[in-house]
Structures are given as C-alpha cells and as structure tokens.
From TrEMBL:
PROSITE patterns noted in UniProt: LECTIN_LEGUME_BETA
Domain of life where this protein originates: Eukaryota
Molecular function, one GO term: uroporphyrinogen-III synthase activity
Keyword RNA-binding: no
Domain Tetrapyrrole biosynthesis uroporphyrinogen III synthase per the UniProt entry, residue ranges: 35-278
Keyword entries, A-Z: Lectin
Keyword GTP-binding: no
Name by which UniProt lists this protein: Uroporphyrinogen-III synthase
GO BP terms: protoporphyrinogen IX biosynthetic process
Length: 297
C-alpha cells in the first residue's frame, strides 16, 4: 500500500469535514489535535492507549542532576525527545539556577515545535545564572531523533543528558534505544534519566471504539502519534478478544495514518500497515493534511 509523504502549503482540504477520526494520543497532548479536528469539522474519537505522567520518583531522579551543580557541569548538552521531558526537567530545576554561565557551548535540543516550549519555560535562563551566547539551540531537520543527532554534530566524547520515558506495562519503543545508539556513534556519551512515565491505559482503553452504538461506530481513519500508542492499541485489542485483522475487516475503508515517519516504522514493525504519513510532522497539521489529500484523490 502506498505511503503518501506530503508537504502542501494549501489549507486543509474540505474532505476532513464529517470524517470520523480516531486517535490514540495521550490526553496531555490531544487538545492540540482536538482543536484542529473541530476546526475542520471532523468528528474526533479519542481513544488514548497510553497515559503520560511525571511521578515523584521521576522528579527525584532528575533532581539528582539538577540540584548537583558539580555533576550537571560535566554535561555539554541536553536532548529532549518530547514535550513531557522538557516539562519534567523544568519542574526539577531549583529556584536558583544551578550553574554559572557556560565556559564552552552548551546545546539544548528539542524536536519541531517543542523548541518553542524551551523558550516558554526559559529553560536556559533557569539552568545558568547569567545569560550567555554560549547556549545553542540546534534545530533538527527533519524533526526526528535522527535529525536531532545530526543537528548536535560530533560529540567528541562529551556528555549529553537525555530525559527519556520510563515505560510501564509495555515494551520500550525501539526509537529510544536507537536514539541513544546514534548519539554514541556520533561520539557523544549519552546518559539516560527516566523523566516521566508512559503507562498503558488498561484493558478497557478501546471500549469507545469497539463498543460504539449501532450507527455511531463508523470510523474513517485511525491516527497514531507514537509507537507506544500502537503497542498499547494492540494490547487493548488482545484484551478485548480482537485482532488487527478484525479491525480491518470491520472497517474495510479505514485509513491508517501516523504522525511522522518514526511512528510509521514502529507501527509497521508491530504489524500495522500504514497508509499515509505527513512530512510536516513538527505539528499535527501534517498528518491531517495527509489524510485530506488521501480522501481527495
């Protein structure tokens, strides 16, 4: 099946109007997607398959770095692969910035629009006591873990702190380990710290989808925004006595879309063939744009 990789500058097409679109996005990210769906008159079906939270243990683990100036000063970079990681690190920072201005360039890297959150939280000013031109914000193009590694450049043995998810009830997505391995191949010395918890939402997570009322159970598209969500979805199907093939049989015209190519690869490794993925994956606009063009063909 063809994967449509799109990058259109035109507004979303009217084909989204009236479409019933299910998505597995966690509740702390889904409002952004919900707003877009409502704006373009689609009918959203939220079925979050994972829950993301920052636990007291996560904060304790982060504070072992953020409140230890001697230890934190040994790092040359911070790499955030999600907004949750940024939020957790920001919460763990003490009131007084733990470090003086950097002696050498210190890089703080995030994906796509998450860079805006770095600015909104004034992260650099909360880490360093004095504002400095030595703090860099490499832009990852594309907005993917691979793009981030390339944007960071050669590590030359320097240490980089990576606030990553602690996955509970599911297997850790391969993308996390692969990100760390890429950093190592680029010469960095990555240090992982569990910054937040990604937990399966439970065996009833798909009730809204699988037990819909007659006439209200039509689904036009399924949107996955992370590999963990895909695994949570498949686990929910298994607990409900369904298989992915059962979903395809019930909704024969279902279009499967992913938010970015990393999720597409993860989904297909888990046995779910993806129909569309938008190239503009630094926001949810891209995946909806890809769906709109699919339906316009």
């Amino acid at each position: 099946m063809t994967h449509y990789i799109l990058n259109q500058q035109q507004p979303l097409l009217p084909q989204l109007s009236g479409r019933r679109i299910a998505f597995t996005t966690p509740t702390n990210y889904s409002p952004r997607l919900l707003r877009l769906l409502h704006h373009y008159h689609a009918i959203p079906i939220p079925i979050p398959t994972v829950h993301i939270s920052i636990t007291p243990q996560n904060l304790s683990d982060l504070k072992s770095y953020t409140t230890n100036s001697e230890l934190l000063s040994t790092f040359s970079a911070l790499a955030f692969t999600s907004r949750s990681g940024i939020s957790a690190f920001s919460l763990a920072l003490p009131v007084t910035p733990p470090l003086p201005e950097p002696v050498h360039t210190f890089s703080i890297c995030a994906l796509g629009n998450d860079v805006q959150l770095l600015k909104e939280t004034n992260l650099a000013m909360r880490i360093f006591k004095r504002k400095s031109a030595e703090v860099a914000f490499p832009v990852s193009i594309p907005a993917s873990p691979e793009g981030m590694v390339e944007a960071l450049g050669a590590g030359r043995g320097r240490k980089i702190l990576c606030p990553v998810p602690e996955v509970v009830g599911l297997k850790e997505p391969a993308v996390v380990g692969e990100f760390v391995e890429r950093l190592e191949r680029k010469g960095w010395n990555p240090v992982r710290v569990p910054a937040y918890e990604t937990r399966w939402t439970g065996e009833n997570c798909l009730d809204t989808l699988l037990r819909g009322k007659e006439g209200e159970d039509m689904v036009d598209a399924m949107v996955f925004t992370s590999t963990a969500e895909v695994e949570g979805f498949l686990k929910g199907l298994e607990k409900a006595g369904w298989r992915w093939e059962s979903v395809r049989e019930k909704w024969k015209d279902l279009v499967v879309a992913t938010h970015g190519p990393v999720t597409r690869v993860g989904a297909e490794k888990l046995g779910i063939e993806v129909d569309v993925v938008g190239v503009q994956f630094d926001s949810f606009y891209g995946v909806l744009e890809a769906l709109a063009l699919w339906w316009s063909c």
